[in-house]
Amino acid sequence: MATIPPPVYMLKPGEDRVSILVNRTLTIIGQDDGKFLVSVTDRDYQYDPSGEKQDIVFREAFASLPQAKAELENQINLSLAAGLIEREFPRLCRGGSSSLTFAGVHPRNSER
């Protein structure tokens, strides 16, 4: 049985390359009726600095998972063409605790 891929998170950086204008989520959601919903939503920080409002950019149901995966790839490519970049969440277990560099997570003066 094929599995639904994890959500893809993308960002659109501001001109200063520091601020974030848009935070986009692209995902496939399995439906009770056997269909698969491809959903693309944005939190637009340029017009709503709080980021509370979420706008639906694209939403369509597909009869099979392969069709939904193909549309998800299409939406990712369209997002990349529109200037969004894929965002990777940091994985804390990647290199063990000695590789953590955030002071709040692993301060230099902590004891092991």
Structural overview:
This protein is of the alpha+beta class and 112 residues long. It has one domain (8-99). 15% of the residues lie in helices and 32% in strands. It has one helix at 65-81, and strands at residues 8-13, 20-30, 36-44, 55-62, 85-86. Strands 4-3-2-1-5 form a five-stranded antiparallel beta sheet, with helices on one face. β1 and β2 form a beta hairpin. The longest helix has 17 residues, at 65-81. Mean pLDDT is 83; it is low at 96-107.
* Number of DSSP strand runs: 5
| Basic shape | elongated
List the quaternary state of the chains: single chain
User: What structural category do the secondary elements indicate?
Assistant: alpha+beta
The number of helical runs is: 1
Q: Determine the mean pLDDT.
A: 83
- The helix fraction, in percent, is 10-25%
What's a concise summary of this model?
This protein has 112 residues and is an alpha+beta fold.
